[in-house]
Amino acid sequence: MSAALLAIGCGTTEGRQDADSTPLAAWWYDMDFEPVSSSVHGIDVSRFDPTWKLASALDAKMLEGRIPPVDLARYTDSGMSFALQDDLDGDGMPEEVLAGVFSTRDGGGGRFVAITRDGQLVRHFSQPGPAGFSALLKYGDEVRWYKCLECGEFESIRWSGESFLLE
Fold this sequence. Notes:
By secondary structure, the chain is mainly beta.
């Protein structure tokens, strides 16, 4: 499936006026999400980072009505998700990994991925910038964190034997 996603590419030519037009950007590059809560899955945002003001976990419902049904189906069929559960560290207890967006008290923001267990924050990674799309894909012993739907670029979250790492 990864090869199929790579073959499709990250741009689109829908809506092109003529041969000299610039392709429109794919929706996952242009879509921003507004963080709206002081907690994520019951965890206060200050536990993620004391500079954060608000955060939200991404959810497929956030896409409904904002993208055409065919694009929603493409996301659903991709195998990616905004949250997943798996025993990533091999201790017999599943972790939940979730993608989200945040805003800071000084007006900044960005994306994050969090690893929780039993309602407790285990680890999180954040990327300053747009509060945009990101999704997760379980692949072998890692979780891949994508910032686009149809490209091969991702960061890997792995258990090192001692802690979770972002590579």
